[in-house]
Amino acid sequence: MPSVAFYTLGCKVNFYDTEAMWQLFKNAGYEQVDFEERTADVYVINTCTVTNTGDKKSRQIIRRAVRRNPDAVIAVTGCYAQTSPAEIMAIPGVDLVIGTQDRDKLLGFVGQIQSDRQPVNAVRNIMKTREFEELDVPDFADRTRAFLKIQEGCNNFCTFCIIPWSRGLSRSRDPKSVIEQAHQLVAAGFKEIVLTGIHTGGYGDDLEDYKLADLLWDLDKVDGLERIRISSIEASQIDDKMIDVLNRSSKMCRHLHIPLQAGENSVLKRMRRKYTTEEFAAKIKRLHEAMPGVAITTDVIVGFPGETDEMFEEGFRFMKEIGFSEMHVFPYSKRTGTPAARMEDQVDEEVKNDRVHKLIDLSEQMQLSYAKQWVGEVVDVIPERDYKGAPGTGFVMGYSDNYLQIVFDGSEELVGQLCRVKITEAGVNECRGQLVRVLDSTTASARHEAQAIVPEAKAL
User: Fold this and answer.
1) How many angstroms separate the CA atoms of 190 and 188, rounded?
2) Which candidate, 152, 214, 213, 149, places its Cα nearest to that of 185?
3) What is the per-residue pLDDT for 455?
4) What is the rounded CA–CA span in Å between residue 94 and residue 113?
């Protein structure tokens, strides 16, 4: 049986794409082997280019694959492959470079290379691509949360970001195909679907009169699907229709990831973000009204060119005021080829570091204070695995719909089931809870109907 090994760098979308490529190999009779442990006939390296370091790491992994089996077919895909195919083709031992599109042709190229050993550069101009690449993932190893990719590319061209050049412009997956895939995932035993993409909230921008809110209502009708989570959405994409779904659909998770990036208007403007802090705060206020108890997580870039101490302090105050439930904090890193990398007033690394630590401390305080509000409340949790802090001790862990990681008493049979859990203790990264009962699907659907009639039930 021929074998394939994968190595994935970068974001969740890349991990989804790797799963989709594995399905192609699996259907062709390949077995998957561990990249580090066994030699394979084909190596697929799914690269990242979001930072210069991503490029460097990608090159190291490609060389490692070549060393592991010089006779194997070495295929390189992903964002770095899309933006710098010639650089990758120049690495001795690389057989195929394929970028972030045409991956359905991957096996054809591999077969061709195996017979004639001629290297192939199959990268095309991504900016001309208008179609969403249909690659299905009917099953996931962890069995509790399924990722469903609904969108690709981005039209925003923020000054710090290379992604439009590596992923192309925004394109949406056909709604029928999304719903069909959701039914397949539910049939495979998944109760929660995470909608993902490069710019997920931009879903529908290229469709006729059909937006993300319409898709959410169609997913709301999928029987057996308990929870719908959006991986990320921009403040500017949260309109009245979106607020209405969040308010009325009982399947929408009370958790939204809304990237802020900076808490000061002049920095936002230089980043070419499409909102002011005032507009951002107004959207967050509306979300809290529509979905009481909602957890709002965010991304922040620290030390963007020209960010003074005063601007940072103003941003710090703004974030504290908003009261996120968690922040992902990144020091600004120069990305060759982006406008921000050419800006003057680059911020000193030590200053960046200092600011990052201040924001991480703030994030932990906010995480704890959000979690404390839920002590004594009962929430729905789908356990994902045995408690990794102390395996085999009779505890499981999973996420509540409002994205608290909860550890509670229970055996592994509970994994993947919808449980009602009372939160007994709040923590920064995990909370403790007590199992109240396991909900079967009939109880769950009755609960959904009750919540649809009484929206206040959302607040628990």
Assistant:
1) 6
2) 149
3) 34
4) 11
